[in-house]
Design brief:
The protein has about 325 residues and is α/β, with parallel strands linked by helices. A five-stranded parallel β-sheet has the order 2-3-1-4-5, with helices on both faces. The chain is globular, with a radius of gyration of 21 Å.
């Protein structure tokens, strides 16, 4: 059986891809492809990644990695499919030992590994916004505070070359398929259409809801970070933040959370590894973005800060009522 494993990365459209694949199982089966429904967690196949690492997570079945994989293969066979597609950005954290276990489990199958990559400064921005937005984290500091607080963890996530090299060392470089996560360069401007083409399928109608887990605007994110310091109920916080984001997008006033110098510093830190990625794996799409970034110019933030201060004060007064 051919087994396609999409390993992410985080903040590279994985949630949208998984949602689209899960809603399109009938169309996929018509092309001899199974996207397993059994044991899926929020449309993704995170249980396998966690089981390989010996992790126990909420909502995870009490099964071994071998049992989970056998379940999915059996589901594919029951649908008369000889292609199995799995997707989980949690594979991003798999150690070489985890990957070795997976290779042994797949020794009688034809496996290939797919991943989408975006410039590290964009990844950091998206990750920061997510931590500000999620009620579980409700981060209230600046993006610089966020980076230094999670320095070691983030640097491990942003070191794409080291992560991909782990997979290549086990499965072989020829089985690694990388793509630049850039809507302008992806087929159809959409990760769903792009991924389907990458694994050799014909296009078919996708679910109406195409964009899932989108980032909020920079301006709304900065205001929400300030709101997080106040401490309001999750429901009120979410309602307020989503409306703020809509208002900001409608008026078109956007700020920079990372200036050009900061972005350049981040990209320089991973420049060598990114260059090796391009040479050794030749990603599809506009992969040059990983080494030749056009960064925004630094600009005075006085006007933006003044505007934000007024908005934050208004929000604080509304929340206090």
């Amino acid at each position: 059986m051919r087994i396609v494993i999409h390993i992410g990365f985080h903040k590279c459209g994985s949630t949208a891809l998984q949602y689209g694949m899960a809603k399109s199982r009938g169309f996929l089966a018509a092309q001899n492809v199974s996207y397993p429904a059994a044991l899926a967690i929020e449309d993704g196949h995170h249980a396998l990644a966690w089981a390989l690492g010996g992790q126990k997570r909420e909502g995870m079945p009490d099964l071994s990695a071998a049992q989970i994989l056998d379940t999915w293969i059996a589901e594919a066979v029951s649908r008369n499919c000889t292609n199995l597609v799995l997707s989980s950005e949690e594979f991003e954290f798999s150690t070489e030992a985890d990957i070795q276990k997976l290779k042994i489990l797949l020794q009688h199958h034809d496996a290939e590994i797919h991943a989408y990559l975006r410039p590290q400064d964009e990844y950091l921005l998206a990750e920061y916004k997510q931590h500000v937005r999620m009620s579980e984290t409700a981060f209230s500091g600046s993006i610089e505070n966020f980076y230094f607080k999670h320095f070691q963890h983030l640097n491990a996530q942003l070191d794409y070359y080291r992560i991909i090299r782990r997979w290549a060392d086990v499965f072989g470089a020829a089985r690694i398929k990388l793509t630049s996560f850039d809507r302008k360069g992806m087929i159809g401007g959409d990760i769903l259409e792009d991924f389907i083409a990458a694994i050799g399928l014909q296009p078919f109608p996708w679910p109406e809801q195409r964009d899932v887990n989108l980032s909020w605007s920079n301006t709304a994110t900065k205001i929400l970070a300030a709101i997080n310091k106040i401490g309001i109920s999750p429901a009120k916080r979410w309602y307020l933040a989503t409306h703020l984001d809509r208002i900001v997008r409608d008026c078109g006033h956007e700020i920079e959370l990372l200036d050009g110098q900061s972005r350049g510093g981040i990209m320089n830190g991973f420049h060598h590894g990114n260059q090796k990625l391009l040479i050794e794996f030749r990603p599809r799409g506009d992969a040059a973005r990983l080494v030749n970034r056009v960064l925004p110019e630094d600009r005075p933030q006085n006007a933006d800060d003044a505007m934000l201060a007024v908005l934050i004060q208004l929000v604080a007064e509304i929340v206090g009522k």
